[in-house]
Amino acid sequence: MENLDKGIDYQVYGLKQEGFMIEAKIVKSRQGDFNLLHSGSEWFIGVLIPNFYPNTHFDVSKIFILDENDILHKEDFDYLIRLAESVRKDWVRFSDREVENIKVVR
Length: 106
Fold this sequence. Notes:
By secondary structure, the chain is of the alpha+beta class.
């Protein structure tokens, strides 16, 4: 679950453009853990991070684009659980893959 695409500039892909909203559908979900999202050719994982702010009980959901290695394992539910756990333990390590402009559609 290494971040193999550290050098990718996601702005090239239009994923961080101001005012641009990506509509993504939930493909798989584990309640209270993660959502696997799909939009066009891109795949994302939304992860619930409990107690995100120090000394609070606020949970925050963050969404990250999947890299090529993650996409290869998108059908492996156990892999996705481990990926979500990795994000929760050190979400800053994945911050270069964070996408904030996603609208989840059903």
